[in-house]
UniProtKB/TrEMBL annotation:
Upper lineage: Bacteria, Bacillati, Bacillota, Bacilli, Bacillales
Listed InterPro entries: ATP-NAD_kinase_N (IPR017438), ATP-NAD_kinase_PpnK-typ_C (IPR017437), NAD/diacylglycerol_kinase_sf (IPR016064), NADK (IPR002504)
GO biological process, one term: NAD+ metabolic process
Gene Ontology terms, MF aspect: ATP binding; metal ion binding; NAD binding; NAD+ kinase activity
Protein family membership: Belongs to the NAD kinase family.
Keywords tagged on the record: ATP-binding, Cytoplasm, Kinase, NAD, NADP, Nucleotide-binding, Transferase
UniProt-annotated catalytic positions: 45
Pfam family, one: NAD_kinase
Localization terms from the record: Cytoplasm
Identification of the protein by name: NAD kinase
EC number(s) reported in the record: 2.7.1.23
Source species of the chain: Staphylococcus intermedius NCTC 11048
Obligatory cofactor(s): a divalent metal cation
Length: 269
């Protein structure tokens, strides 16, 4: 079994990574940062986001596991004291893999034929570069839906619905649903300007285009990565064909993770 461990870099995560690597040697597991079958992140959900982007070019060939050295995470759901159990489970038999949907983002520029493509595990956002009002036209499935004015827009995956999307009042969506969610960030709503005001959940076959109205410079984030784009014609959002694969060694249902993260970790659902 070829593996790689990515750590958050703090002393606790580094010590756990070192301990795990010693155990891995006992099982004749091979460290392979180029072509791992299993990618283990040690830290938090933020560390797993970084690991995902590092290996996003080979998603069909690797499976992710997250260990948290801080608080319980949505992707990082193994505890430091469980690592021996985890390593034995990795080596025991074929493990179960569960797949979660991803968001595809394509930024198209006014220079014809030029575009940039991203995959998001949590979400992508669009804002202006200087904090001024974002003015964009939103098309859904080729039909004009609304002109949005406000701080920005957030388009999230089901597994990312518990992150920034939740803070924006979006719904929590079970990751078995192949969908994306479009959420407003502080829209301007008065007698002159109007937006729908509710988060929209789009199925896999519905594509959303967001077109800047005034000028084509936007600040776009994809998970923890922030990029300024100039001369943008439109940004396309849809459910990606690719999926992220998580190695599962025990059941930990999504709603239990939601309960334990946001309600109480002491009681069971
Ligand atoms: P960060 O600002 O250091 O961390 C943001 C927080 O979001 C961390 O507590 C992180 O958990 C948590 N998180 C990440 N993915 C999550 C998920 N799927 N469900 C629930 N919580 C999750 O930034 P970062 O570590 O680089 O992560 C980038 C993410 O921050 C973005 O994808 C976005 O979702 C989130 N964010 C949230 C807000 C907000 O809630 N107002 C604003 C901006 C960005 P860990 O501590 O376990 O890493």
């Amino acid at each position: 079994m070829r593996y790689v461990i990515l750590s958050k870099g703090d002393p606790k995560s580094e010590a756990l990574k070192h301990k795990m690597m010693c155990h891995m040697q006992d099982f004749n597991m091979i460290e392979d940062a180029e072509n791992p079958e299993i990618v283990i992140s040690v830290g938090g959900d933020g560390t797993l986001l970084q690991a995902f982007h590092h290996y996003s070019h080979m998603l069909s060939r690797c499976a992710f596991v997250g260990i948290h050295t801080g608080h319980l995470g949505f992707y990082a759901d193994w505890l430091p004291h469980e690592v021996e159990k985890l390593i034995i489970a990795i080596n025991k038999a074929e493990f179960q893999v569960i797949e979660y949907p991803l968001l595809e983002v394509i930024v198209r520029y006014n220079d014809e034929g030029y575009e940039t493509r991203y995959l998001a595990l949590n979400e992508a956002t669009m804002k202006t570069e200087n904090g001024s009002t974002l003015v964009v036209d939103i098309d859904i499935r080729g039909q004009h839906f609304e002109r949005f004015r406000g701080d920005g827009l957030c388009v999230s995956t089901p597994s990312g619905s518990t992150a920034y999307n939740k803070a924006l009042g979006g719904a929590l969506i079970h990751p078995s649903l192949e969908a994306i969610q479009l959420t407003e960030i502080a829209s301007i709503n008065n007698r002159v300007f109007r937006t729908v005001g509710s988060p929209l959940v789009l199925p896999k076959h519905h594509t959303c285009h967001v077109k800047p109205v005034d000028h084509g410079t936007i600040l776009s984030t994809v998970d923890h990565i922030s990029v300024k784009h100039k001369n943008v014609n439109a940004v396309q959002y849809r459910v990606a064909n690719e999926k992220v694969r998580f190695a599962r060694f025990r059941p930990f249902p999504f709603w239990k993770r939601v309960h334990d993260s946001f309600i109480s970790s002491g009681e069971s659902l």
